[in-house]
Design a protein that fits this description.
The longest helix is centred in the last third of the chain and has 22 residues. The chain has 2 domains: about 160 residues, Bordetella uptake gene, domain 1 (D-Maltodextrin-Binding Protein, domain 2, 3-Layer(aba) Sandwich), CATH 3.40.190.150; about 100 residues, Periplasmic binding protein-like II (D-Maltodextrin-Binding Protein, domain 2, 3-Layer(aba) Sandwich), CATH 3.40.190.10. Strand 6, helix 6 and strand 7 form a beta-alpha-beta unit. By secondary structure, the protein is of the alpha/beta class. Helix 1 crosses helix 9.
């Protein structure tokens, strides 16, 4: 794996055909976000891995906008020949279809699910005045609605899990949505908001420098970077966790041989020991691979998020 100065994986562009004898043109890995950030890291790991294992030319094709649905619609309507693939997220498949009145696709029927790729690690962080999750929730119970949690928007992966957690804890906290993660984290550091769920990639330095306190890992297991920080689930909330993820999808009716080769190569790419070490440094981690695990996860999280959105009074816009 070649790491550039920007910390991304550089994918060589080879001329050999990739997935089938008839395929000779470049394969597009459609990214539903603007260039930069974790989505590019994931996309370039995938491009490098597929190139090494299948040959061919894989390039990132950024199509941001409309809560990732522009990219999703592009792939859903493409030819099922293995030359247009989607590097989608939990937002694409388990959030946007519930939050938008007409996302333009069905998250199950309009795609060929190939495999999950990786999880995005997150932490429940708080202003340092809160020494533990137990202390935070005790104060929230004593002062209903007076403590707050920040997020980067209504119905996001920073909002719905906190809605779930406060419901499990039986506490009422004020949700304060911000226009992006940086200003939300800034206000937690300043004490204007009490806590938030933050991506590890964005919050790691603040945790290490003591500007925020990590109260619990949102992932289902403790993180190698912070082995002494318990998961939220360990602290009296069994079953809580999961967080955000990336997955590989293709248009519907992708031929089985192409799907099998892509799925195998992608899974191998994200389970390579060198790749796992690099992913950990970027706040990413491994996840169960394969079509069955991915489809089950999407169905489960759609049901869970539908209930949470109804509880929050979020209606399709």
């Amino acid at each position: 794996m070649t790491i550039t100065r920007r910390g991304l994986v550089a994918a060589p562009l080879l001329a050999a055909p990739a997935l089938a004898q008839a395929q000779s043109s470049t394969t597009a890995l459609v990214i539903p976000y603007s260039p930069g950030g974790a989505s590019d890291v994931v996309g370039r790991i995938l491009a490098e891995g597929l190139t090494q294992r299948l040959g061919g030319s894989f390039v990132l094709d950024h199509k941001p906008g409309a809560s990732t649905t522009i990219a999703a619609r592009t792939v859903a309507r493409a030819r099922p020949d293995g030359q247009t693939l989607l590097v989608g997220t939990v937002v694409t498949f388990a959030m946007a279809p519930l939050a938008l009145r007409n996302p333009g696709y069905d998250p199950i029927e309009d795609f060929t699910a190939i495999t999950a790729l990786c999880d995005t690690h997150a932490m429940l962080v708080a202003n340092p005045r809160w020494r533990s999750l137990e202390e935070l929730f005790a104060a929230a119970k004593a002062r209903p609605g007076q403590l707050s949690y920040a997020s980067w928007g209504i119905g996001t992966t920073a909002h719905l899990p906190m809605l779930d957690l406060t419901g499990r804890a039986g506490v009422e906290m004020l949700h304060v949505p911000y226009n992006g993660a940086p200003p939300a984290l800034t206000d937690v550091i300043a004490g204007r908001a009490d806590c938030m769920i933050a991506l590890l990639a964005a919050s790691r330095g603040h945790i290490e420098e003591g500007r925020v306190r990590a109260l619990g890992t949102v992932s289902t297991e403790r993180l190698p970077a912070f082995p002494n920080i318990p998961t939220v689930a360990e602290q009296g909330f069994p079953g809580f966790g999961g967080g955000a993820w990336y997955a590989l999808h293709a248009p519907p009716n992708l031929p089985a041989p192409i799907k099998a080769r892509l799925g195998s190569a992608a899974a191998e790419s994200f389970n390579d020991p060198r790749t796992l070490a690099f992913m950990e440094s970027q706040g990413l981690g491994p996840t169960p691979t394969g079509e069955a695990a991915l489809v089950e996860r999407i169905r489960r999280e759609l049901a869970q998020n539908r209930e949470l959105m109804q509880r929050a009074g979020i209606t399709p816009g």
